[in-house]
Design goal:
homodimer, alpha/beta, 6-stranded mixed sheet, 8 helices
Chain lengths: 335, 335
């Protein structure tokens, strides 16, 4: 197992201690078990709190986006596993600044069940919550059953949009509406070239043949919709963009945010090669990319592969994307 | 070959086009061949220019550090190969703002030979240059022949220090002296767990057994000094820090910059697990980490592994590290 760790069962604990040692000035844990991560600085009274939660193994998702302009708190689960409802509840309580809390997270069974319980529980104490589920992965379910789709890298755009809306001191319903608009306008697809290894398992959780790729694979190795011979970068992007555009129906004059996300082991050089093809595809149709995001935003340990997210923009969404943000893994200084 | 590209021979060309499409507002190519990358904005007259050069396959090194507060220009070579003297010359000429140019680059034969020629050539036209070679990799040669050592991830600290010194409008000799001080105070070591694949070769360039790691391996796969069974994260860091400290001789009260750099396929989670051990090792000896850098700063395609760089600080170096910088791959907003 080609990995750096101590005991497999301490993987998440040791990672969280690393987070604390590395980013102690910006972040703090609310609990002794280090599963409830908060911004070190206090949010202004009356700001909507924004929290997320999810399993570990996807850094920078989820906890890497806690910070100014994005999330107020994150509940940390074990590798690929939902954190508990109780820890989510602690996170929500810590992030209620008097205007309610938006729970913005990926559409996975465990996370949904636990957030439901946590929201019910804080509701008894009068803390208002709204849940917005990220379902950007278009290959995880057909359009007719889009409510079953999983959340992948596009959630980072949703964090950014909701964070900027909350910083404008909008009420909970408006912050939730901004996140929902971002999600309505966004689609993602992933392509995996190789599996990842969970430290407690010690071997790859599935196999992809040496000359094959899997289109539509999820960030936990959920099977894709198509296994095929490895395509060129240009063909890969064309396949993904055509699928995305069947639903987004982009046309001349549209502006889009593009995220080319590495799943773990794919060199930055190759994300740029993929971005080149995406840029050309869009520009040849009169569609203009805005603030491209290229790098590792939502990974699956050391999986080789990439995902593409496209979000159709309007002036409101552009304003939110442009707003300043500063977290350990995401900085926007209004370049 | 689990990679995204089009033709192997177009790998660097396509990557450079991706750079242009992605960062067109911040960066520009000076040449039609897209090998001379410059900041899009003009530097103030009288500022020392800072340039580097090197082979591709190490992103964000080298070109990712062109931008405000760091480099003015970078000459781009093919994968793991030095760019030509002629392209270096074009870069130096474009980055002479009237106060001379610092050529700050890794100690590799081809880069050194070509920079020598380029500097001689621009010298005929009265452009003053200084060459400072990065030699931070302590396992690449013993201390007695330290002049033979290679440059690895520590060069990013050197770019940052030199960039901040140049922004203070110091003269060439002082900017070079600041970079040299950073380099004198810094040591790095890498540990590889798996090899990388060059697109034109199509298979791993060397083999590391499934249960082994290679300590001291270079970022082009240069052999290390020790192959051993995979150590725990804690043992790995202890081995590296003890070696580094044989030369840096750190003691109670010292402050250090620490860079925990992923070589390509190592998850961020594991860099944090490694950082945890480094932090504990340092703190238990009364040595204080300052502005930790954790992530991918200098890679070797999809190699699994990490490198550790430690730089002993004084007030001058701290000031330079703290100074603002904004490049496509490095942002410091004085958090």
């Amino acid at each position: 197992m080609k990995k750096f760790f101590n005991n497999p069962s301490d993987y998440v604990k040791d990672m969280c201690e690393g987070i604390e040692y590395a980013f102690g000035g910006q972040l703090r844990f609310a609990d002794r078990e280090k599963r409830v991560l908060l911004r070190a600085s206090h949010a202004p009274k009356g700001k909507v709190g924004i929290v997320t939660a999810g399993g570990s193994g996807h850094l920078p998702v989820f906890l890497g986006y806690v910070g100014a302009g994005m999330l107020d708190g994150c509940t940390i689960g074990n590798i690929f596993a939902s954190p508990s409802a109780q820890k989510m509840e602690e996170t929500i309580r810590a992030c209620d600044f008097g205007a309610g809390v938006l729970c913005l997270y990926g559409n996975y069974g465990g996370d949904r069940m636990n957030f439901e319980m946590a929201c019910e529980s804080v509701g008894f104490d009068g803390i208002e919550t709204r849940q917005v589920l990220v379902r950007d992965d278009i290959f995880s379910s057909p359009q007719e059953t889009a409510e079953k789709r999983r959340g992948v890298a596009g959630m980072v755009f949703a964090f950014k949009v909701a964070g900027a809306a909350a910083d404008q001191m909008l009420p909970l319903a408006s912050v939730a509406a901004a996140a929902e608009k971002a999600l309505r306008n966004m689609r993602s697809i992933g392509v995996a070239l190789s599996p990842c290894i969970l430290p407690e398992v010690g071997k790859p959780s599935f196999i992809i043949a040496d000359d094959e790729m899997e289109i539509g694979m999820g960030i936990h190795g959920e099977p894709g919709i198509q296994t095929c011979k490895i395509l060129s970068a240009e063909e890969t992007i064309q396949t993904l963009l055509e699928k995305i555009n069947e639903e987004l129906c982009l046309g001349e004059g549209d502006e889009v945010a593009v995220m080319l996300n590495g799943l773990g082991a794919t060199p930055m050089e190759e994300l740029l090669i993929l971005y080149r093809s995406a840029f050309k595809w869009l520009m040849s149709r009169g569609i203009k990319p805005f603030m491209p995001h290229i790098g590792e935003f939502a990974t699956s340990m050391e999986m080789a592969g990439a995902s593409l997210t496209v979000m159709k923009l309007d002036e409101e969404l552009k304003t939110y994307l442009r707003a300043p943000a500063c977290t350990p893994f995401y900085t926007n200084v209004n370049k």
